Amino acid sequence: MDSLAVRYRPAAAPPDRRPRGPLFLTDRKAPAGTPTLDVCPETGRSRLSYRRAEEILEENTRLPANPLAWPEDIEDLDGWTLHRLRHIALTRDAEGGTSTPMLLARSRHASVRSLERYARPGVDAVARHVAERDPTARRRGCTFSNVARRGCK
Length: 153
What we know:
Layout (H helix, E strand, L loop, with lengths): L24 E5 L15 E3 L2 H11 L1 H4 L16 H14 L4 H8 L4 H4 L7 H11 L1 H6 L6 H4 L3
Antiparallel strand pairs: 1-2
């Protein structure tokens, strides 16, 4: 097994299974002198470097990122990156209605302009947002889910 294998801690981990600490860990104990925030208080293992975590993620997501590809072509494929996951998370938050100040704080961007490249809601999310906030459609009982069914305009 790779000595730098990734250990993942789900967001809803049971209390007895590492509820805090770094997300991606090495298989080794942290060497003496490692900063406290880079060591898991439960296991004593150190945080995996961003570069190595991204390498492992990219290698292991080549087929899921390219569902129509053949497994024998795996070496020529690109997988997901941590940066791409960041884009996805911010876009989903934006589609879910998270406020701009909260998106800025979460992404650590200083300006809305730099955030625009990350949070790009899709067409369906924009249509749902408009339908939910249209006062005339609400009075007639039209919602995003029944616009197509009942022909509300």
